[in-house]
Amino acid sequence: QPQLVESGGGLGQPGGWLRLSCAASGGAFGRSSMSWFRQAPGKERELVATIVSDGFNSEYADSGKGRFTISRDHDQNILNLPMNSLKSEDTAVYYCNTPWSTLDWGQGTQVTVSS
Question: What per-residue confidence (pLDDT) applies to 27?
Fold first, then answer.
């Protein structure tokens, strides 16, 4: 089973942007749909965005619609999440996994939105 490694988080300004990436080491995403999740302090992990195998269709939670764009690169085996118009409520640890959470969770990448 591949190990998921998320990166790209950090401190973002309200209204700013960050670009998250997820790489699979020791394996590949395969042809599975893939998703980004996030977990804010004191809250349950929530699904943020999902992209299907062919990369042509994606879905977003209301929280990310119009601001986040999930994409995937099969050759590089990377999942991306550019995040624009950041809001304080985007502060969370972000994770990637299949929509059914079938892979082992990675460490996640911390996103903090603050001025």
Answer: 65
